[in-house]
């Protein structure tokens, strides 16, 4: 029987790499490997017993071209009386996803793999918080839920309604600080500012003199429960919700969601739809990077550069409105297509504007990157070695700034990217300057991609599939290379809408490495180091300084902190 399963593994493999890797998985699992199937051209699902999960994780993590991408926990008790964990590993060199499916009854513990897959740490904590899955071999602490949340209530379980959650609990900020207990160290908490503001987050910096010796992060203080909300929505209502996950690059989420549903239900979208989605995605990358470059220069005290970056960005925002009808939250995506076409007049206007943007951007970048003070503040600070970047499965400019040439536009191609040629800017230094230069170069590449697409966009008016049939309990993955890095959505289909929707944004992955980046930096460089991953939460405009020995408290503006003004 085992030999039959291994033979099946080899038969569903997409190429030589997946064949080799799946054969190794079959060998370590033996009769604990229950089933294997290809769920889409690029995705293979492997069903295993929980007690061989750790061995499978060891096999997959040992392969240099295999990266952990995401994990989704699903309450499937209504159908099978089981919870299921879906671990998604990607073979970058082949563009193949291996989904390891692990069933559990919710009572028995599932082996933790965070010791061999460091990037899985938060996923296990979230699954424990929201779904009640227990993991052995690790300490389980709160991640998403507040410290005083009732232990027995897990909000993503199907037997918990949103109405019950609202009645159960009124949100409040709960401090989770743990003193290091080291003498002569000052603790500087950055945030949370106030729950009414944008995305309160909390960093604790432990400082000796002017050097950061350690750091920790606490987040999820305004977790919105959108995945739970989507369970009560229809398929074409969810893109509007998905696009509001991020106020800067929300289109990446609506595309990722629709692609996941389209993969699960085998919906073939028109070619022109792929072009339109890709053009808007690249416009979004340009305006997002320009926004970040401006904010980074502001944190460094170069406000002239900040104003020029945002001046150029305004032209891109006008283009977004021209093509979609809105500067942001475009609302054009639906499962199987898009709502708005791009005509010849808009194509010509876009080409003209992009030429202006390119000329102005080049002039601006040449000046901004030649300012000695800017380069000195960025060079050699916030260093993240390539080995650490790989261990955390980092994504986007953060990964590419540490030498990892990972980009889902090429590794797991989608949309119209296979119709164009472009480069992947990569730097090996791993510092704040490298991450900045990656974003600067990517703007040039995005303009190049859009120009190629506008020259070859199909003349057809077909932009959506007229009808499609939902099939319950089908698995689909959707990925998009967002400005901050890979976004990946996992969808399990229901009758009228998603049964389970798991969203993984790039900041979720990259934040786990920020404490490593902060260790050893000067306190003045902490703000730009945190900002260098382009985190998706609001900038905090002040911090608190607490002397652990005396208990004295001072309020410090972020501007002072970023200029080394703490004494």
TrEMBL record:
Cofactor(s) the protein needs: Fe cation; Ni(2+)
Entry's Gene Ontology molecular function annotations: ferredoxin hydrogenase activity; NAD binding; NADH dehydrogenase (ubiquinone) activity; nickel cation binding; oxidoreductase activity, acting on NAD(P)H; quinone binding
Span of domain NADH:ubiquinone oxidoreductase 30kDa subunit: 47-163
Pfam families: Complex1_30kDa, Complex1_49kDa, NiFeSe_Hases
Keyword Metal-binding: yes
Residues the record lists as binding Ni(2+): 246, 249, 536
Residues the record lists as binding Fe cation: 249, 539
Domain NADH-quinone oxidoreductase subunit D: 300-467, 478-542
Binding site for Mg(2+): 227, 503
Keywords: Iron, Magnesium, Metal-binding, NAD, Nickel, Oxidoreductase
Name of this chain's protein: Hydrogenase 3 large subunit
Organism per entry: Zestosphaera tikiterensis
Gene assigned in the entry: hycE
């Amino acid at each position: 029987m085992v030999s039959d399963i291994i033979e099946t593994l080899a038969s569903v493999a997409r190429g030589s790499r997946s064949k080799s890797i799946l054969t190794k998985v079959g060998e370590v699992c033996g009769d604990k490997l229950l089933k294997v199937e290809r769920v889409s051209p690029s995705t293979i699902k492997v069903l295993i017993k929980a007690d061989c999960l750790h061995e499978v994780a060891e096999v997959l993590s040992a392969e240099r071209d295999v990266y952990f991408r995401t994990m989704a926990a699903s309450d499937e008790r209504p159908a099978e009386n089981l919870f299921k964990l879906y671990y998604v590993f990607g073979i970058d060199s082949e563009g193949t996803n291996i989904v390891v499916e692990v069933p559990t009854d919710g009572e028995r513990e599932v082996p933790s793999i965070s010791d061999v897959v460091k990037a899985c740490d938060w996923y296990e904590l979230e699954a424990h918080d929201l779904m009640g899955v227990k993991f052995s071999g690790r300490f389980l602490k709160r991640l998403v839920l507040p410290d005083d949340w009732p232990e027995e209530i897990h909000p993503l379980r199907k037997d918990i309604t949103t109405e019950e959650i609202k009645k159960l609990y009124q949100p409040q900020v709960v401090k989770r600080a743990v003193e290091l207990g080291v003498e002569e160290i000052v603790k500087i908490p950055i945030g949370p500012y106030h729950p009414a503001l944008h995305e309160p987050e909390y960093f604790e910096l432990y400082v000796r003199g002017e050097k950061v010796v350690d750091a920790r992060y606490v987040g999820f203080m305004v977790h919105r429960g959108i995945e739970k909300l989507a369970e009560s929505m229809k398929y074409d209502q969810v893109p509007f919700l998905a696009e509001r996950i991020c106020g800067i690059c929300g289109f990446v989420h609506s595309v990722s969601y629709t692609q996941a549903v389209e993969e699960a239900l085998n919906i073939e979208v028109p070619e022109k739809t792929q072009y339109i989605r890709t053009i808007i995605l690249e416009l979004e990358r340009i305006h997002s990077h320009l926004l970040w470059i401006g904010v980074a220069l502001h944190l460094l005290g170069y406000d002239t550069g900040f104003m020029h970056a945002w001046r150029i960005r305004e032209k891109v925002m006008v283009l977004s409105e021209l093509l979609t009808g809105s500067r942001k939250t475009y609302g054009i995506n639906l499962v199987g297509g898009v709502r708005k076409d791009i005509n010849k007049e808009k194509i010509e206007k876009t080409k003209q504007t992009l030429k202006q943007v390119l000329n102005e951007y080049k002039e601006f970048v040449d000046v901004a990157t030649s300012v000695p003070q800017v380069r000195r503040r960025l060079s050699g600070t916030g260093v993240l070695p390539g080995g650490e970047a790989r261990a955390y499965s980092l994504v986007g400019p953060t990964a590419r700034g540490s030498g990892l040439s990972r980009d889902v536009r090429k590794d797991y191609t989608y949309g119209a990217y296979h119709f164009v040629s472009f480069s992947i800017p990569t730097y090996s230094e791993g510092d704040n300057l490298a991450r900045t230069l990656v974003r600067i170069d990517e703007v040039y590449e995005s303009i190049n991609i859009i120009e190629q697409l506008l020259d070859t966009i199909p003349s057809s008016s077909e932009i959506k599939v007229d009808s499609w049939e939902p099939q319950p309990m089908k698995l689909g993955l959707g990925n998009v290379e967002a400005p901050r890095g890979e976004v990946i959505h996992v969808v399990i289909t229901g009758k009228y809408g998603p049964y389970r929707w798991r969203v993984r944004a790039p900041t979720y992955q990259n934040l786990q490495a920020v404490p490593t980046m902060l260790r050893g930096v000067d306190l003045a460089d902490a703000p730009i180091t945190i900002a260098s991953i382009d985190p998706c939460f609001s900038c905090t405009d002040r911090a608190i300084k607490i002397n652990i020995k005396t208990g004295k408290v001072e309020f410090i503006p972020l501007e002072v902190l970023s200029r080394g003004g703490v004494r």
